[in-house]
Design brief:
Two copies of one chain form a homodimer. The first copy, chain A, is of the alpha+beta class and 383 residues long. The first copy, chain A, has a domain of 246 residues: Type I PLP-dependent aspartate aminotransferase-like (Major domain) (Aspartate Aminotransferase, domain 2, 3-Layer(aba) Sandwich), CATH 3.40.640. Chain A contains eleven helices and 16 strands. In chain A, strands 1, 2, 3, 4, 5, 6, 7, 10 and 11 form a nine-stranded mixed β-sheet that branches. In chain A, a hairpin with a 2-residue loop joins strand 8 and strand 9. The radius of gyration of chain A is 21 Å and the shape is globular. The first copy, chain A, starts with a helix and ends in an 8-residue tail after the last strand. At the A-B interface, helix 2, helix 4, helix 5, helix 9 and strand 15 of A face helix 2, helix 4, helix 5, helix 9 and strand 15 of B.
């Protein structure tokens, strides 16, 4: 019954037809930039669009430097490495996130340590985390270590879930007190601001994703954001195989990566970035229309931006009441059957086979929300 | 003086103007496919061009399956992982190669073990390797280990330098006798054949690169080749974040990678692949013209395809005599100054800071060739 009410509400906003969870929107500008890129023959790791995309991203997000890379996972891996994470460190990440957040930690030989989230932001809860660390963290040289595992606590990765900024002020305070490098996973939150400042610009480094399902896309792509010029230079060096500048010699001074964004993908990105303000307006309108349409359904809440925040509303999100949690699967089944693509939250990280042995804080809110989230069709242009 | 003779010979073939080392060539087809891709909105990790590119690559190289990924380094990393390489294994790679070959080994926590090459192929020398292994390898369970380091010898990675196939028959025999998984780094040798069979199809797995400087390009890209369906399925699973197939659930059963080639890049690749036969003919003509023009210069040999092989002549390569080795830098300097882009061989891997502690076989041929190689302008379309 609640399923029928939800479908009626969604149809009232969207009309008839099939609706993807999130599709990109392209104009003549995307076609034109990509054509120019191909005509220039500079389609690969060097080119004017890469430089321009980096400059425009930095300007838009308010950081000094952006380094464009092949995807958001690569961005996070390199950002964590540059932030000082080493093999066998622990890195605090939310239990509710896309698996890339945890994978990036693992690629460095470090261990994710899963922490709980809060219902108002869907992101890390600084109060719960502080309580947890009070119990398990002990000073060890310049850092803290987990006294249960003996491992150094190297960094913390707040992720801005579905585009909603987490409590950055709270996270910065915890990071400061426990000497954790703070690296923001802003893969989902391009266009989202916390107290007027762009997400991804609060930590030592931040990362973005331009995968096909994101608010803007480069096909595949990501970026590292930082206002530290030295870290930015290092990020660029590491992501371009750590080759030393020379007219012809091939000398690499550390183990780098082939992570540079191709110019072809950056051409698409430049065109997409120019559409971002319009995408943001459209997504906000969609939120307002869904909000009005769903207002009278008991036990169903549409996720709104946290106070003092401006969300990009990347994915519209229904949060069901506890009483409705056991109807989530029916809602997913029926909406998908009628052509309204929906999906649940990701399986929590500590439930995945490769991560089930990792350290965990108490995760009661994440475990509750995992059963109660339904993402709705959210593409720009639907409203 | 030899520099002047070389420049005169190159100008005789190329004419006046500036010539890059290797530029891509695009036609209307590249523009058309990429436009169609953008119009479809499927620019990211799923799409018809990715599927088509994989099918056409498999058909062209004569393997059952090709898995398209973000670049050649990622292809090699995943191929080695699937071939069974584990942390702390040693993997035999040529000392003369692009750094990606060694990096892919390191990303898995394994250790590259550098071996010598032969002058006739510029690739691994199976006789020298067999002599070396006779001295250092001892049986240990199902495999062999390096008795000097105590580490298991996990795999061997022949690389087909500048497009010239190495002695695959010899390498397969060594790999068999020492129970080494053989993974071919065919990044440079799309279109090259050994005894009529395509390079990259001899090992358990092979890898290709479509970086901007390769014989065909996808902007950035690579592929894993194999005729083992099970390994191919695993490669695809690992390169797509190891997500289990499900209509909406996000469950990942191992630590995967975000390595899928975007459809936008595959669109470019499909168009490029249709030009490959023409590129191969043009490069062979260029070899013949350079060969004729350089024939009378003492101490200078133009690298030709090894016997029983068909090379793609990706990069035309001058090999200087010992006596001329100390004139290499002047040749590089002067040719680049006059707009003929040339470059030396890569710095040998064991001389790079991150790899200087790795195990090494005697490397006298690699060390000699390192001082005597000059790559010439090689783009398709120059002849």
């Amino acid at each position: 019954m609640v399923t029928d009410s939800i479908i009626t509400a969604l149809r009232g906003v969207l009309g008839n037809g099939n609706f993807a969870l999130h599709e990109p929107r392209f104009t003549e500008k995307e076609q034109y930039y990509v054509q120019k890129c191909i005509a220039s023959t500079y389609v690969s790791s060097v080119g004017a669009y890469v430089d321009r995309f980096e400059k425009e991203l930095a300007a838009y997000t308010g950081v000094r430097r952006a380094v464009a890379v092949v995807n958001g996972t690569a961005a996070l891996q390199v950002a964590l490495q540059i932030a000082g994470v080493q093999a066998n460190d622990e890195v605090i990440v939310p239990a509710l996130t896309f698996v890339a957040t945890a994978n990036a930690v693992r690629y460095l030989g470090a261990v994710p340590h899963f922490a709980d989230i809060e219902e108002s932001t869907l992101g890390l809860d600084p109060r719960a985390l502080r309580d947890w660390l009070k119990g398990i963290a002990e000073p060890a040289g310049d850092a803290y270590r987990n006294r249960q595992s003996g491992r150094r606590l190297g960094a913390i990765v707040p992720m801005h879930t579905f585009g909603h900024p987490c409590d950055l002020e709270g996270m910065l305070a915890v990071a400061h007190d426990y000497r954790l490098a703070l690296v923001e996973d802003a893969a989902e939150s391009l266009g989202s601001r916390y107290q007027g400042q762009h997400t991804g610009s609060f930590g030592l480094l931040g990362t973005l994703s331009f995968n096909g399902n994101k608010i803007i896309t480069t096909g595949g792509g990501g970026a590292i954001l930082t206002s530290d010029e030295h870290l930015a230079d290092h990020a660029k060096h590491l992501t371009t195989t750590a080759k030393m500048p020379h007219r012809w010699d091939y000398v690499h001074d550390e183990i780098g990566y082939n992570f540079r964004m191709p110019n072809l993908n950056a051409a698409l990105g430049c065109a997409q970035l120019s559409q971002l303000p319009e995408f943001l307006s459209s997504k906000r309108r969609l939120f307002e229309r869904f909000q009005a349409a769903l207002a009278d359904i008991d036990g169903v809440r549409l996720m709104r931006e946290p106070s003092d925040c401006e969300s990009n509303y990347w994915l519209q999100t229904l949060v069901l009441s506890d009483a409705l949690a056991d109807q989530r699967d029916e809602i997913l089944q029926t909406t998908n059957d009628v052509g309204l693509m929906t999906r649940p939250a990701w399986r929590l990280m500590h439930r995945l086979v490769p991560y089930q042995e990792c350290p965990c804080a108490p995760l009661s809110i994440a475990e509750s929300l995992e059963r109660r989230i339904v993402n709705l069709p959210s593409s720009a242009g639907l409203a």
